[in-house]
Amino acid sequence: MTKTRTDKYVLSFCVAGLGMIAVASPLFLKLGSQMPDYMASERHTSEQQRFRNELEERQKTSEKINQTGLVLAAETLILNNYLDDPKKLPKLRKTDLNRYGKDKQAWVYDASDKCIGIIRNKEFISKHHKPSVCDKLPNHNDYDNTN
Q: 105-109 and 76-78: which strand pairing?
């Protein structure tokens, strides 16, 4: 069997290819071990981006509500940064009180989901000033209103 001109270079190309693979192998091996971390960071980034988009949409909705002056239809107001304390009344912002007109009312709850009063006619009536306020809750049996 006679060798052609290209056959004599096959062995040297194979050796060169193996050398290049040996030189580049640490790069590929390291990439494989970092793949789970990379996927976790990509997942975290996409969750953050989705959360930012959701916040932007909420902000746009809030701005539209403030521009149009529409009253929110909610019947409850939950104060997430307040736990009921008989010695101190919660501070409600004027905007929270103004959301509910003369014909609207809202039950006010603290962060632990206990009734602390009612907003009626743009005025907050606390259960500490009038203890019977929280007795007339809708679905009163479903709530625990003990102090």
A: parallel
Residue with tokens 């009180």: 97
Token output for 124: 């907050």
Q: What is the pLDDT along the chain (147 residues), one digit of tens a residue?
A: 566 677 778 888 999 999 998 888 877 777 667 778 888 999 999 999 999 999 999 889 878 877 775 555 567 777 777 777 777 777 777 777 777 666 777 888 887 888 888 888 778 888 888 888 888 776 544 444 444
3-class secondary-structure state, position 108:
strand
- Report the C-alpha gap between 68 and 62 in whole angstroms: 10
CB atoms within 10 A of CB 101: 10
d(Cα 30, Cα 22) in Å, to the nearest integer?
14
CA distance 51 to 42: 14
Which residue type sits at 61?
A: T
